[in-house]
């Protein structure tokens, strides 16, 4: 059963500006010519059928919804094909690697005295985030990419057998189209709803115990 705590917080908090904005967007959708959804009917058959049935019964009629997914784009340039992490995967056993892709949200302080141009490609300081000596202790167990990595190509590689993911919809589609099961670690927005869909409805993902409290044990 889907719990209220799994719903996006902007929907259940009625007194926020974000909630008012979302409701206004939903009202304006009724005036659109059509609604494009990045999904496919085989994946969400029940939801798509319910949506179509509801649209046909609504008065005035609601715009028709079109499933145009899965929209997954792989890179085609040589730099990505020869990316260090892909070369590393070539030496690993089939389905022996778990991909951990942690989503990052940066919010520079507006009143910071030394205001410098924001560089979205800047590498994060992992030494400040991780326990002391972590990178050195684990260097023989895997590979860490501090910046962007070709996620679609990684998931397509035969060495990858699992994906620890924040349950963003684009990443979910990338995993599904490559046949990689998902270990769900949602952060915010609609991601807890996506976890419910993966773990309870589709049975292609598992819940990670402790992630809702912010900490996951080593045993888990």
TrEMBL record:
Keywords in alphabetical order: Transferase
Superkingdom: Eukaryota
Segments crossing the lipid bilayer: none
Keyword Transferase listed: yes
GO molecular function term, any single one: UDP-glucosyltransferase activity
Family annotation (InterPro entries): UDP-glycosyltransf_plant, UDP_glucos_trans
Protein name: Glycosyltransferase
């Amino acid at each position: 059963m889907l719990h209220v705590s799994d719903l996006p917080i902007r929907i259940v908090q009625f007194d926020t500006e974000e909630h008012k904005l979302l409701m206004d967007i939903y009202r304006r959708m009724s005036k659109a010519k059509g609604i494009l959804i990045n999904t496919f009917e085989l994946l969400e058959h029940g939801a798509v059928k319910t949506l179509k049935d509801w649209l046909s019964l609504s008065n005035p009629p609601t715009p028709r919804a079109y499933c145009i997914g899965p929209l997954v784009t792989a890179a085609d340039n040589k730099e990505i094909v020869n990316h260090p992490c892909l070369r590393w995967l070539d030496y690993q056993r089939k389905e022996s690697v778990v991909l951990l892709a942690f989503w990052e949200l940066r919010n520079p302080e507006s009143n910071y005295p030394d205001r410098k141009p924001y560089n979205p490609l800047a590498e994060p300081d992992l030494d400040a985030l991780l326990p002391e000596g972590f990178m050195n202790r684990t260097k023989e167990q895997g590979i860490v990419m501090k910046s962007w990595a070709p996620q679609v190509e990684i998931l397509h590689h035969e060495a990858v057998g699992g994906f620890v993911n924040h349950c963003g919809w684009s990443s979910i589609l990338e995993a599904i189209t490559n046949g990689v099961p998902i270990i769900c670690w949602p952060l915010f927005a609609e991601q807890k709803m996506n976890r419910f869909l993966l773990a309870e409805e589709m049975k292609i993902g598992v819940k990670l115990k402790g992630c809702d409290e912010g900490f996951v044990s080593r045993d888990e």
